[in-house]
Fold this sequence. Notes:
Blueprint: E1 2-6, H1 13-24, E2 27-30, H2 31-40, H3 44-55, H4 61-73, E3 81-84, H5 90-102, E4 109-114, H6 117-125, E5 127-130, E6 136-138, E7 158-159, H7 166-180, H8 184-188, E8 193-197, H9 202-214
Parallel strand pairs: 1-3, 1-4, 2-3, 4-8
Antiparallel strand pairs: 5-6, 5-7
The structure holds adenosine-5'-diphosphate (ADP) and adenosine monophosphate.
Adenosine monophosphate binds next to helix 2 and helix 3.
Amino acid sequence: MNIILLGPPGAGKGTQAQRLVERHGMRQLSTGDMLRAAVKAATPVGLQAKAVMERGELVSDEIVSALIGEELDAMGSETGAIFDGYPRTEAQAHSLDAILGQRGRTLNHVIELAVDEDALVERITGRFTCANCGKGYHDKFERPQVDGTCDKCGSTEFKRRPDDNEETVRTRMAEYRAKTAPILPIYEARGIVARVDGMADMDQVTAAIEQVIAS
Ligand code: ADP
Ligand code: AMP
């Protein structure tokens, strides 16, 4: 099973991808996470991407498609892939077709998380993650059960992304509208798009995604 979670920043892609990983043993392939790891490790890719990410613009298609190919090669061919934050441009969508084809994989579903733009700034500015295991949280919508302690691994260290501020979020949304939303018709033409209400509560979104996957 290979699926794309498509939606603007803050739509809930990472949240739902983490749940699919836990339930189905699939692998989350987040180009955002890969790029942040590259920035942290100060690799050549990270050095190139850092300023672009801080502005909320898109990193080059060549860089992110290469990262996706490498990650797919590093995982077992039977493990399902959840593409989170990739593809984000038409060129990336075409690259993904080639990348999957070369590896004998096919795309089963493109799940569009439909959300009101007004809600996204609040979602993103309240977002934080466990610094140890990466579990996602929100100041208002998903607090740890015990304040200050990660539900999953017990760590007491959390972090926030430098690009999760209102100004950068506006740029990221504009990038989504201009470059990413236009790729949906490619997949609609193949009849593999399912639209899920991303404004519903997290468990309802998960249930809707489970239905799509089971179909
Ligand atoms: P994305 O990966 O699409 O950028 P996230 O999954 O990180 O988005 O979600 C952004 C923030 O919104 C997180 O803090 C998350 O806890 C919260 N969130 C995700 N889904 C929902 C939802 N259905 N309702 C309310 N808050 C949500
Ligand atoms: P994300 O974690 O998906 O919100 O991505 C964070 C940032 O990383 C984006 O604002 C972009 O700068 C960059 N990025 C992540 N994925 C891609 C992609 N597929 N194409 C281009 N840039 C990306």
